[in-house]
Amino acid sequence: MKSTYLILTLIIGLLLSSSNTKHEYYVSVTNIEYAKEQQSVQIISQIFIDDFESLIRQRYDETITLAEADEPAIVDEYMKRYLEDKLKIKINEKSYEFNFLGKEYKEDITYCYLEIENIKDIKSISVINRILFDILPDQQNIVRLKMLDKNKSFLLIPENDECMLNFN
């Protein structure tokens, strides 16, 4: 099991660390981890910059260029709005909204930092991830859950965009 996880992580890392501006795979990775001491669910979504830029141009403003020194402040609002629409999280069968903490660019990836606060206990978590499905038919979204001594990865596609993990 650990070797499968290691191989999957290595492949994802290679796909996301490519320094080419064009890529042949359409994949995002969303890591979700429960920080028990902080009583928060911490989320990092990794999305190729060029794909996210295409989305923002199509949905909000065709003049936007991401990862530029003069990037407009409104980009954070566009990203927040889009992620709120496409990434849905239920904890213990209750829907939660996350806080958009910010983003940063590393090589050709946008890292979006999100958090759900005041989570005292987790019995189950359900994630719907439709990021970029609306503009890229070949998009795949990997969701990695790390909580309560469990690590689980899911590959979500447009026809199957939800995953769930129970802790009973």
From TrEMBL:
Organism: Winogradskyella aquimaris
Pfam family, one: DUF6702
InterPro entries attached to this UniProt entry: DUF6702
The organism's place on the tree of life at top rank: Bacteria
Protein name: DUF6702 family protein
